[in-house]
Amino acid sequence: MTDTLPALERRMLSAPEFHALMAMPPELEWFANIRSEKTRRAYRNDLREFTRFLGIVQPEELRMVTRAHLLAWRTNLEERTLAPATIRRKLASISSLFDYLCEQNAVLHNPVLGVKRPAANNNEGTTPALGDSQARMLLDAPPTNTLKGKRDRAILATLLYHGLRREELCRLLVRDLQQRSGVTHLHVQGKREKTRYLPLHPMAQRLIEEYLIAAGHRYDQKSPLFRPVKNNTSGTLLKPLDPQAVYSCIIQKYGRETGISAMVHGFCVHSLRATAATNALENGADISKVQEWLGHANVSTTRLYDRRKSRPEESPTFRVKY
After folding, report:
1. What's the pLDDT tens digit per position in 202-218?
2. Source organism's superkingdom (predicted)?
């Protein structure tokens, strides 16, 4: 019968593969449906930790989990003095799984519902933002006479002037530098495959152009925008930077060299995103525009970067006189 079907309609899966997919448990379907590699990695770790705590071996055993099991796990997390945000995320991971199982009629209810989570700090985020002088110090840290220095300056400017996530930075291609209404924009692929266009800051544009000319791939539209300057393993440079390399070889490196890492507790790649958002808000940007600019699904997340109410210079501390 298959010989009579058009080529495009013929089954590409073998019969055993076809039947194996039909028998896939909904627990595995849920995991396979998570598009973000970062989210998949976090959920995998949370689920592994949860099942290890309960002694679960087979996916089907998840369907016997009750609220009492979740309460016991939450107590265990609290006893380990994990941060409230970490506990909330872990519970959210398991809740996401059980929501899917409910949709598939694999369980009758989500046992995570009704399990109270640690209160969130809705006033201000914990990621530290840099001051203006510290941001300038970081931008000036890479050398100007080497290819790596030119690239790192361009990367730091892209992060500090546009508030990108490091995964978004690493996904940029040369063709993502696009003209819109006569202005160069960054075409950014964000979380959940959402696209946004950000006008390119003049300083970042200049540094990116200097880097691309020095690197020699300015007109290779399909090339990653930021590439390795050397590769001791395979020798190929035609690949995107690894997000971990951005942290260890750029942020950590220049953070140590400038002394920022010692001055700013918790300094990391996300600090540059927090710096961009905080600076934009302090200089009069509309918070709804900043929400779109950062790619936040909810403005409440953007408010975590709004530190205008906690400016040190406006503290009563500096009104005290003896």
Report:
1. 999 999 999 999 999 99
2. Bacteria
Amino acid 122: pLDDT: 55
Q: How far apart are CA 22 and CA 1, in angstroms?
A: 22
For the record, the structure tokens of 105 come out as 């009629």
Angle, helix 147-162 to helix 202-215, in steps of 10 degrees:
150
Query: If you average pLDDT over each of 26-40, 146-160, 183-197, which comes out highest?
Result: 146-160
**pLDDT higher than 60, residue 226:** yes
Q: Is 273 considered catalytic here?
A: yes
Distances (CA, A) of 84 to 108, 116, 178: 29, 12, 41
Q: Of the listed 165, 270, 303, 307, which one is catalytic?
A: 165
165 among known catalytic residues: yes
- Tokens 């933002």 belong to 129
Beta bridge partners of 188: 196
User: Domains in the chain, start-ordered, CATH in brackets?
Assistant: 16-103 (1.10.150), 132-313 (1.10.443.10)
40: annotated active-site residue: no
pLDDT, mean of residues 79-104: 89
Residue 185 bears catalytic tag: no
- Summarize the chain as % helix, strand, coil (round to 5): 55, 5, 35
Instruction: Give Cβ neighbours of residue 157 (< 8 Å, ≥ 6 apart).
Output: 139, 201, 203, 204, 207, 208
